[in-house]
Recover the amino acids of this structure.
């Protein structure tokens, strides 16, 4: 960008008069007198620098070889709240210290900013760091600053050129993510649900900590499709491979269950769900979750076994009742419900009549209601001989 400036000729030394030191901390200093004699080549280079930096959609600046800030572009000056006639707006600020810009930064960033900038000045190499810069309202925003040296054709250092990129929203998002990560990790651990990302084009896979725990492998393990298949139960590998192939081919999400067979011989049931998306280049990606549902499946198996045993016992009981001519009945006193089984028993067996006759002896007031429920309009009076049968 500045190549033409370098071809203007060898850098000529010049004397710069010493004037009052510039204090940037207040950002409201009066305009300074122009420095003394400067070469035409230097003035031309600086004019080109200022014109170029003013059209860059960023907060740009340049400093002299000693590190003293000399110019900031309009966007940068307006952010700092510099007066319209401030020397930094015109590139005529002189006599500043190498670290005169530090007071514009957040106090917590002073030490690191000095270290990085002093390293650049000492070594002549480029430097980069994030820091917070105070604006005209006294508020701070995050910037990523990058400083590069501009040199003459003979290698002489002419200026330090810098660009500050506003990364405040990104930093705040990162901070919010950092604060939420422990909660997310704990939630995943409690719910036995891990997350993953899969790039179908490159095959690259990313796992959360809980996903590594579900697959019982070290977090340093590099997850691949081949590794996943090696952990899948042999009887389910064809199902998993089919889902992977279909997702890669059709770009559709998936939701299915399969088993894992782990190195210790244990079996896990997992549910895998994923949603497709495209990155900025159009590459197919999947973001998903894997949930360990082993406890649910084991509980369901226990329930099914209990139901099977109950059905078998019920069948045996009914058979025993049929053979022994014995029945059972129940009456819900809270709902006054008498199931049909009671009616069937009452019509074929005197056992119920014996119970009712016994209750009658104790003056139970519910006898009429029970008789009505059991026998309806064909109710017959109890006889002692029936009760004694």
């Amino acid at each position: 960008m500045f190549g033409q400036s370098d071809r203007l000729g060898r850098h000529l030394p010049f004397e710069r008069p010493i004037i009052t030191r510039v204090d940037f901390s207040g950002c409201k200093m009066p305009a300074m007198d122009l420095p003394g004699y400067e070469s035409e080549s230097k003035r031309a280079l600086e004019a080109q620098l200022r014109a170029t930096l003013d059209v860059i959609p960023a907060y740009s600046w340049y400093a002299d070889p000693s590190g003293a800030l000399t110019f900031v572009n309009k966007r940068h000056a307006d952010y700092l709240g510099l007066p319209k006639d401030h020397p930094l707006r015109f590139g005529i600020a002189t006599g500043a210290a190498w670290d005169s810009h530090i007071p514009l930064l957040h106090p917590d960033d002073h030490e690191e900013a000095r270290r990085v900038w002093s390293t650049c000045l000492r070594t002549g190499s480029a430097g980069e760091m994030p820091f917070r810069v105070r604006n005209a309202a006294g508020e701070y925003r995050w910037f990523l600053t990058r400083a590069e040296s501009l040199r003459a054709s003979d290698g002489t250092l002419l200026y330090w050129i810098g660009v500050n990129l506003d990364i405040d929203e990104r930093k705040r998002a990162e901070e919010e993510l950092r604060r939420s990560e422990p909660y997310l990790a704990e939630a995943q651990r409690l719910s036995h649900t891990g997350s993953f990302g899969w790039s179908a084009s490159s095959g690259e896979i990313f796992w959360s900590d809980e996903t590594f725990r579900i697959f019982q492998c070290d977090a340093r393990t590099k997850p691949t499709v081949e590794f996943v298949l090696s952990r899948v139960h042999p009887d389910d590998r064809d199902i998993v491979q089919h889902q992977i192939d279909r997702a890669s081919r059709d770009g559709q999400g998936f939701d299915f269950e399969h088993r894992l067979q782990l190195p210790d011989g244990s079996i896990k049931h997992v549910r895998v769900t994923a949603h497709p998306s495209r990155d900025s280049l159009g590459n197919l990606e999947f973001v998903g979750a894997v949930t360990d549902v082993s406890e649910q499946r084991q509980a369901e198996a226990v329930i099914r076994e209990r139901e099977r045993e109950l059905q078998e016992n019920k069948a045996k009981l009914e058979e025993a009742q049929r053979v022994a001519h014995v029945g059972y009945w129940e009456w819900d006193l809270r709902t006054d419900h008498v199931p049909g089984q009671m009616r069937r028993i009452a019509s074929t067996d005197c056992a119920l009549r014996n119970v009712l006759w016994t209750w009658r002896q104790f003056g139970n007031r519910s006898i009429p209601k029970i008789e009505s429920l059991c026998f309806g309009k064909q109710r017959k009076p109890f006889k002692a001989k029936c009760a004694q049968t």
